[in-house]
């Protein structure tokens, strides 16, 4: 079952990553030898960075609004729009900052609200500038320097084409309001027309460059996903699982939560390849991955660890619970043939101990798995030699 991973920063004890299933699409592609990475939406490895940057941008926006209000008052040039909007804008940014600190998982909603706030203010500023000030000075007001920020926010928040259409609509609305403002202006001179033309063309150029950068971001995200995904099964690969394991071990250390590791190996897989061919062996691997994935709990993480080995990370799970989970998975694979081939697993189980490193935990799970192999295969063995219920005696 394919996985799309979104990485989060460890803030306030929230989830460090999010897993979303994409099983039917990836399974169909791998069966027909299509590109397993050609998903409609790929992982966003910049999600954690987005949160950290937002926590800086919101107070920065509030400071900019308050500074604009203060300097306008000092210069005796506070216009009607700024008098009514700058203080509420700064207050909204600060409230969003507090809300985001308490609810970091709501970052997309915070971006949406901030996008609306800035967009409304900037559109109002365009109209007010065109109707009251543009004919009296060269250049535009400082408020309109923030007009392109809405494009940046749209391309960070939305999909590439959605962001482009939204930004073009926003620019079009700005041009319309600016045109209406010019019509109400006492006079329209060449300087005002030149400023308007340069404003529109520079924003269009800005949008085109952003669209190119959005393509680059998409390809970066695809490369990130490919580097962390096993192409055959669609599961996390060894590299991806190592990152998840380190994050979950840190959570276990910090919050004292149990954590278990299950290492499963397909019994006599070399014989399957030798007897039926590698194409059947590949299909067996895919079907084992799909069966295991279908019977996992919400927070369990499955990866193809290498060859015919699968590694399962079970957060919030102690050793007895992990043994029961392993036994259930053993039965799921054993109960009916895969691609006409009878398949069994040998599973080693290990649980987190204070002070464990990823290598130490993996070593104990690996040792338990090899003891399961040496003990006759098709069984679950826990660390320290404690074997779980023999086949046929589980209750």
Write the layout of secondary structure elements.
Elements: E1 3-7, E2 17-21, H1 23-31, H2 47-75, H3 80-102, H4 107-132, H5 149-157, H6 160-184, H7 190-228, H8 238-255, E3 259-266, H9 269-276, H10 278-294, E4 301-306, E5 309-315, H11 319-334, E6 345-351, H12 358-374, E7 380-382
Parallel strand pairs: 6-7
Antiparallel strand pairs: 1-2, 3-5, 3-6, 4-5
Can you offer a commentary on this structure?
With 395 residues, this protein is α+β, with helices and mostly antiparallel strands. The chain has helices at residues 23-31, 47-75, 80-102, 107-132, 149-157, 160-184, 190-228, 238-255, 269-276, 278-294, 319-334, 358-374, and strands at residues 3-7, 17-21, 259-266, 301-306, 309-315, 345-351, 380-382. Strands 4-5-3-6-7 form a five-stranded mixed beta sheet, with helices on both faces. A two-stranded antiparallel sheet has the order 1-2. α3 (80-102) runs antiparallel to α4 (107-132) and α4 (107-132) runs antiparallel to α5 (149-157).
H/E order of the elements? EEHHHHHHHHEHHEEHEHE
By DSSP, the count of extended strands is: 7
Q: Helices and strands: which structural class?
A: alpha+beta
Mean pLDDT figure: 84
List unreliable stretches of 5+ residues. Answer: 1-43, 385-395
In short:
By secondary structure, the protein is of the alpha+beta class. The chain has helices at residues 23-31, 47-75, 80-102, 107-132, 149-157, 160-184, 190-228, 238-255, 269-276, 278-294, 319-334, 358-374, and strands at residues 3-7, 17-21, 259-266, 301-306, 309-315, 345-351, 380-382. The chain contains twelve helices and seven strands.
